[in-house]
Design a protein that fits this description.
The complex is a heterodimer of chains A (43) and B (361). By secondary structure, chain A is mainly alpha-helical. In chain A, 63% of the residues lie in helices and 0% in strands. The longest helix of chain A has 18 residues. Chain B is an all-alpha fold and 361 residues long. Helix content of chain B is 80%, strand content 0%. In chain B, helix 9 packs antiparallel against helix 10. The longest helix of chain B has 35 residues. Classes of the chains: A mainly alpha (43), B mainly alpha (361). The interface between A and B is medium-sized, with 26 and 33 residues.
Chain lengths: 43, 361
């Protein structure tokens, strides 16, 4: 990789992937269930 | 300073705007999924009340069928498309939450067996698809994409490999179309075959997880058979997904050695970048459940949340299935994919039956 490409690469903003966002949302939901904010979700 | 490139400032789309843009599509997913659930509850009751003989159709199939009908008749209007595309996000969130229904011991026991089966399936599928690609004289990179798509995990694997081996856009859209078309067929054929062979929930779930390519379709194919089969299909499919980085890395190194792709720099970073993070989330939640971080009611609530997330996914699977688009992609890659999938399905079915006798899962 050239220095120029490295410079461009370095400027890319750091972002979470779709996968990671899904994990974050699921863990947040699990936490809300654990602390009792989400009590009963019917099916 | 002379080496630094000045990158023009691109105005990012406001996160709030992006969020607003997905709302109509997510609501559509919810409406179709919920309609599927209502149809499951009411059609059977109505048929029974009128003494009709009508098969019990689960919400999974109703949601998929409703989505397919909409997609292939009126189509999905532009306003809904961004939101409909989030169905993979809901799938992954649903899989993480499903982790609460697995105890770590079960995962280690079944995961060990499924890891062995997945390794055999991946090697066998890649070898056979490469052979088929040569017989049908497909372009080598197209063959690579089809092999990865059918051996590992469908669309995500194809997209990851495309970037790593510098494949053409046309090759990747061919492969994605073939994998999606075959996934749609698997949704309807796998449960039928399972019933014909009187497969138990465990054997069927492991088979669906091993042989159906896309995670959404594997989850749906499992859920169409039974709840227990759905759980196992997700576990085995996640094991397959976890292998994605290794397979893509091997192909990237191979194509770089041929001078037809960029060399891979930091291999550990490459593996981490390609690794599906939702597998880690799934394991983390199951560890928490194993150590009773959640009580019984809370596990039930998490399981229901996971079902709602899958409901959105199944509606998305239907909405994404467009037969007109699939027909446009040409016959040869589809034929290679179809022959490959049939052979892989038979091979994995034999593998599962053999493993069940050997390991007794």
């Amino acid at each position: 990789m050239s220095t120029q490409e490295n410079a461009v690469e370095a400027k890319k903003p750091w972002r979470l992937s779709l996968d990671s966002w899904a994990v974050v949302l699921a863990l947040l939901a699990a936490l809300l269930v654990r602390v009792g904010v989400l009590k009963h979700i019917p099916w | 300073m002379a080496d630094v490139v000045v990158v023009p400032q691109v105005q990012p789309v406001q996160p709030a705007l992006r969020f607003l843009k997905i709302i109509p599509g997510v609501l559509l997913l919810g409406a179709i999924g919920y309609a599927g659930k209502l149809l499951e509850q009411n059609v059977g009751t109505y048929a029974k009340a009128h003494h009709w003989i009508f098969p019990n159709i689960e919400y999974v199939l109703w949601a998929i069928l409703l989505g397919i009908v909409i997609s292939n008749t009126i189509g999905v209007p532009e306003i809904f498309r961004s939101g409909v595309a989030t169905y993979e996000f809901w799938l992954k969130a649903g899989i993480v939450l499903l982790g609460s229904r697995f105890l770590l011991g079960d995962i280690l026991k079944l995961g060990g067996v499924s890891l062995l089966l997945v390794a055999i399936e991946i090697v066998g599928a890649i070898a056979f698809m490469t052979f088929l690609g040569r017989v049908f004289r497909l372009k080598p990179k197209l063959t690579t994409l089809l092999a990865v798509g059918s051996a590992v995990c469908g669309v995500s694997a194809i997209i990851a490999t495309k970037g790593a081996i510098d494949a053409d856009d046309e090759d990747s859209s061919f492969s994605i179309a073939a994998i999606l078309a075959l996934g749609a067929l698997a949704l309807f054929t796998f449960p039928l075959i399972g019933h014909v062979f009187h497969l138990g929930d465990k054997a069927y779930g492991v088979w669906a997880g091993l042989a159906v390519d896309n995670t959404a379709e594997a989850t749906a194919a499992g859920a169409l058979y039974s709840d227990a089969a759905g759980k196992l299909a997700v576990l085995v499919k996640s094991t397959r997904n976890a292998m994605i980085g290794f397979v893509v890395l091997a192909y990237a190194i191979y194509w770089a050695s041929q001078g037809q792709a960029k060399a891979v720099g930091n291999k550990a970073a490459f593996l981490w970048q390609k690794f599906p993070k939702f597998v880690l989330g799934f394991l983390f939640i199951s560890i928490l459940a194993t150590y009773q971080f959640f009580n019984k009611d809370q596990v039930g609530t998490l399981a229901n949340l996971s079902r709602w997330a899958f409901l959105l996914t199944f509606a998305g699977v239907g909405l994404r299935t467009n037969f007109r688009d699939m027909r446009k992609q040409g016959l040869r890659p589809f034929a290679v994919g179809a022959i490959g999938e049939v052979v892989i399905a038979v091979f994995t079915l034999a593998l599962v039956v053999g493993a069940q006798k050997l390991f007794g899962f």
